[in-house]
Specification:
By secondary structure, the chain is α/β, with parallel strands linked by helices. 39% of the residues lie in helices and 13% in strands.
């Protein structure tokens, strides 16, 4: 509307009308939530804009299905293993709502002043007419969600009779005796139920009328309440048989079912890490923030993909994106710890920080043949092997064809280089000395020319040493936190 003005935060100020009469005079009309979403989605598509910003790896698969569902006006359910971005996608849908929408001041149901639905709203308008107060609701307040748990009740979702209102003299059949639950309170918005199969079947039944007739039933009383909302649910496909299931009538009432997936391309996996991990830890300019070089981000992305593909990992459980995100943050934390102890100018992660990921992330992986012993070392061995494999793949991808014989010749006379998670960059580089082709190595690892530092050089050299060992051109001895490279 023309009354909006841009503010510093990027959120516009509320429109001007503050009464029902002013709202009518402004030419405002009532539009349902699904029509509103359709209108804004089509506008973004026509303008060539990203419809759901921040969603990575779904451009050609999931997003077209979601867009078609919204255009069709369907409620939808997203199916996928853990950590595939289902909740993130659902929350992003809020961006397709109008930034501001008018509501009756005091309405528990976010009722549009031009389309009241409750007894209370009709009474307000009858009493005050064009002077009925109008407020404005931001789209960020038009989203509700509930994590489904076995103890969730009908009262939580739909509502229940308020005993206080009954004590005040209202009858049980009076709609105003109802204390509304989360779903009606999200009227004219988007409501999400995460892990829907965990909801007891008798509670799922309570949602049938919401999806089909758009009314609610409470304790035997049918409350005519034409709810206006988009209902979105998420579920793990295995939940149909493991922890519970979505009852058939409820599945039938969802207009669209969309299957999600993990990133298909390595580049998308890396983009996701950059987006979701602490951004400043992946290349921030401040000297007091840790830097995780690009080759280590790639190793973590490859490691995650290898774990997902491993025959020894339970594929039904999946390996969440949080596995990679937490691993990357652990690597950065290891670099910060070293900088604090060794007095480095800036924390920069190195290959020596990678082993810390294995024990830290072990709990995020379900193994296919998990032993009864919680201290089973075979699980750690599997993860360590896959991490080495990811490092080798990254070394071949980034350093294939690069002449590293000069670095290899450093060890020809029996010299060794000792590293460790507390060995500083100057200490490591002091052992290596001059490194032939260091500029080319840094370039291969994505370090811009002119921005090299001693810490980045140490990270590059240590990666090269690890790669030479993995390709059997150097020897390596590891004892606890101490690593020694030699001929």
């Amino acid at each position: 509307m023309s009354h909006r003005r841009r503010t510093v935060s990027g959120v516009t100020e509320t429109p001007a009308p503050t009464t029902l009469g002013e709202l009518r005079d402004s030419g405002a009309t009532h539009v349902g939530v699904k029509a509103e979403l359709r209108k804004n989605l089509l506008a973004r598509l026509a303008a060539g804009e990203t419809t759901l910003p921040g969603i990575v790896g779904f451009d050609d698969t999931v997003l077209p299905e979601v867009e078609r569902a919204l255009i069709a006006g369907h409620d939808l359910v997203l199916l996928g293993e853990r950590g595939q971005g289902k909740t993130r996608l659902i929350r992003t849908l809020v961006g397709l709502l109008d930034e501001w929408t008018p509501v009756l001041v005091g309405s528990e149901l976010n009722e549009h002043p031009l389309a009241p639905v409750s007894v209370w709203a009709h009474r307000q308008i009858a009493e005050h007419g064009d002077a009925t107060p109008v407020g404005w609701l931001h789209r960020s307040d038009r989203f509700g969600e509930k994590l489904a748990t076995p103890d969730t009740s009908v009262g939580d979702l739909i509502g229940d009779v308020d005993p206080i209102k009954v004590a005040e003299g209202r009858t049980l059949g009076d709609p105003e005796t109802v204390h509304y639950g989360l779903v009606p309170r999200t009227n004219r918005g988007i409501f999400s139920i995460n892990e829907l199969p965990d909801l007891a079947e008798r509670i799922q039944v309570a949602l049938l009328n919401v999806l089909e007739e758009r009314d609610i039933q409470i304790r035997g009383y049918r409350v005519r309440l034409p709810l206006d909302l988009l209902l979105v649910a998420s579920a793990n496909p295995e939940d149909y048989t493991n922890r519970g299931r979505i009852i058939t009538p409820l599945k039938d009432r969802f207009g669209t079912e969309v299957r999600t997936h993990y990133p298909i391309e390595l580049a998308d996996e890396i983009r996701l890490l950059h987006q979701e991990a602490q951004t400043s830890w992946l290349g921030g300019d401040a000297l007091d923030t840790p830097l995780v070089p690009a080759h280590l981000v790639e190793i973590m992305a490859r490691f995650t993909r290898l774990v997902r593909e491993s025959s020894q990992v339970d594929q039904r459980s999946g390996v969440s994106a949080r596995f990679a995100i937490a691993g990357l943050e652990t690597i950065a934390a290891s670099a910060v710890r070293r900088a604090a102890v060794a007095g480095e100018a800036r924390p920069v992660a190195r290959v020596v920080d990678l082993p810390a990921v294995v024990p830290a992330s072990r709990g995020k992986v379900e193994f296919a043949d998990a032993g009864s012993d919680p201290e089973d070392e075979r699980e750690l061995e599997v993860l360590e092997h896959l991490l080495r494999q990811a490092t080798a793949q990254t070394f071949r991808a980034r350093c294939g064809g690069l002449d590293l014989t000069g670095l290899q010749e450093h060890f020809a006379g029996g010299e060794v280089v000792e590293s460790g998670d507390l060995v500083s960059a100057p200490e490591l580089m002091g052992q290596v000395g001059t490194v032939p082709n260091l500029a080319q190595l840094l370039g291969r690892l994505g370090v811009p020319e002119g921005e090299e530092s001693a810490e980045q050089a140490a990270a590059a050299v240590e990666f090269a040493l690890e790669g030479l060992w993995l390709t059997r051109r150097l020897a390596k001895d590891t004892d606890g936190n101490r690593t020694v490279y030699g001929s």
